[in-house]
Recover the amino acids of this structure.
């Protein structure tokens, strides 16, 4: 089972390596880059939701922190983009820890409410602090450069996104099959069982929540540099819901499900443009049908049907 | 010095006194059974000693050190393991992984090393996989080495919990009704298993309704009734005790 999991990684690498040579034009290359970036975010979120059984409804808030750190800090303070990215990630991690620490001492799923509130607060702050953030209109983000080399073409961005995705899949596979990962899955399966074998449940929940927030912030920075512009929409509540939907459609607690969920839901709005004005309705209907017929998500359901563990 | 010393232990849930002023000691190396009618407070007593509940009054000492009110994870570090009457198996994991979780405290739990698959960590995990498989064979689950936990029958899951507890390498093992819901031949197997565990040097505390198994295995027996200690002694002493006979048969002695 473990070896077959890593075999999937080879397939991902092969697809990523071939893709730029078969994509017909830059529109598809752009779509592929956004899919890869979303996939990394969803991987981090799935570790939290699918594996550890905790939910975040404000994850776009952490994306927003990273995106705006990369926009504001270099523009107003002349900070190097890499440092700005690190500062954003540190802030996201700190905020996650501050919010979640008291919550994980309680029983029950209060994290959903707290993260929902946090996401909304961050979104409002980004809209209102117009002097720093450009308000609802957003602001431009300087290009990302390192040691005299500047990331500019979509081709370069594609390889960066592909590399990030490959490393993330590998690290996620490693993590879930390690003592740390087993403790996370165990506390999801039975909290009291995890505690009596010595798992400090509150600490593990906190660790994975902070990690997924840092992940989201870093990818928020990457997105901001790639697009070259940020708006408060990145930290929007609906964006948070979209990310959770990617996790659920692809399959909770499934690494490859995260990829499938991110790819499908990034592509779907593009594919639905033919339904002029009714895209959102069709989008909603597809999600409903998915939940009715594939309640465990695409990848776990299909894997079970073909008799293999995902 | 006894391994475990419980004195004046009580817990109240609102007006319900589930355990009242219970005292007893357990010496290292014995098989100690807790029996009593349904609702007598046996599982509550387990939950108190293993840190799931916090006692209202009284003291619990392990090796002379007070452990009353300590968290389950703190007790795990001191070598206290347990199984559950209502199964607590992680159905989102494989059978083998459930056993591996038992070794949690003996492993390197670093997140970064895990994500980067440090060679030392991966090697230790491979060893652990063999160790867990060995434990599964020890409890009689050789047929389920590659099974998912959610695909296993009830009797096998009961033994899986025992294997997970053993992976902790405990000094003191609490088994909450290990034979409940099992058929007679499975019960005999569990009986033999508990004997093997005790012979390996683990002190076993057992809640069980199967009297044949209790009388056969236990060095000492504690009888609870309505949260109070009714009697304590060897199997022969408990069997002759008129209060115990009254509680079990409902007669007014």
């Amino acid at each position: 089972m473990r070896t077959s999991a890593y075999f999937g990684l080879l397939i991902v690498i092969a697809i990523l390596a071939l893709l730029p040579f078969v994509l017909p034009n830059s529109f598809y290359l752009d779509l592929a880059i956004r899919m890869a970036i979303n996939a990394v975010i969803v991987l981090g979120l799935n570790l939290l939701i699918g594996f550890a059984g905790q939910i975040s409804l404000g994850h776009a808030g952490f994306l927003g922190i990273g995106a705006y750190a990369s926009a504001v800090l270099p523009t107003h303070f002349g900070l190097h983009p890499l440092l700005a990215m690190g500062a954003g990630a540190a802030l996201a991690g700190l905020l996650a820890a501050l919010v979640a620490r008291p919550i994980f001492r309680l029983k029950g799923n209060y994290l959903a409410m707290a993260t929902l509130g946090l996401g909304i607060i961050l979104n409002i702050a980004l809209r209102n602090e117009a002097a720093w953030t450009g308000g609802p209109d957003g602001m431009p983000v300087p290009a990302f450069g390192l040691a005299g080399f500047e990331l500019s073409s979509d081709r370069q961005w594609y390889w960066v996104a592909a590399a990030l995705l490959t490393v993330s899949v590998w690290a996620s596979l490693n993590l879930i099959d390690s003592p740390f990962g087993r403790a996370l899955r165990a506390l999801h399966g039975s909290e009291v069982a995890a505690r009596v074998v010595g798992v400090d449940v509150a600490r593990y929940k906190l660790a994975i929540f902070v990690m997924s927030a840092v992940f989201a912030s870093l990818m928020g920075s990457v997105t901001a540099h790639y697009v070259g512009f940020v708006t408060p929409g990145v930290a929007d509540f609906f964006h948070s819901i979209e990310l959770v939907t990617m996790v659920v459609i692809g399959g909770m607690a499934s690494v490859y499900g995260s990829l499938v969920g991110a790819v499908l839901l990034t592509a779907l709005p593009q594919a639905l443009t033919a339904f002029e004005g009714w895209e959102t309705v069709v989008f909603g209907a597809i999600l409903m049908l998915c939940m009715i017929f594939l309640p465990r998500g695409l990848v776990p359901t299909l894997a079970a049907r073909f008799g293999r563990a995902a | 010095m006894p391994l475990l010393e419980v004195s004046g232990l009580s817990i109240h849930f609102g007006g319900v006194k589930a355990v009242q002023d219970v005292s007893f000691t357990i010496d290292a190396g014995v098989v100690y059974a807790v029996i009593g009618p349904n609702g007598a407070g046996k599982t509550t007593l387990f939950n108190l000693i293993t840190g799931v509940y916090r006692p209202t009054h009284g003291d619990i000492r392990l090796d002379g050190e007070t452990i009353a009110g300590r968290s389950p994870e703190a007790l795990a570090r001191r070598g206290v393991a347990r199984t559950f009457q209502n199964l607590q198996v992680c159905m989102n994991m494989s059978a083998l992984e459930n056993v591996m979780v038992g070794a949690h405290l003996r492993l390197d739990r670093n997140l970064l090393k895990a994500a980067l698959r440090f060679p030392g960590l991966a090697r230790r995990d491979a060893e652990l996989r063999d160790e867990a498989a060995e434990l599964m064979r020890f409890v009689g689950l050789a047929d389920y080495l590659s099974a998912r936990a959610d695909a296993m029958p009830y009797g096998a899951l009961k033994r899986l919990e025992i294997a997970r507890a053993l992976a902790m390498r405990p000094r003191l093992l609490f088994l909450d009704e290990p034979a409940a819901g099992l058929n007679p031949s499975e019960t005999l197997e569990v009986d033999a298993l508990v004997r093997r565990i005790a012979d390996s040097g683990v002190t076993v505390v057992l809640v069980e309704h199967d009297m044949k198994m209790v009388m056969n295995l236990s060095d000492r027996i504690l009888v609870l009734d309505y949260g109070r200690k009714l009697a304590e002694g060897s199997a022969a002493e408990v069997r002759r005790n008129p209060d115990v006979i009254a509680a079990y048969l409902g007669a007014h002695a």
User: Anything to note?
Assistant: Chain A has a mean pLDDT of 91.
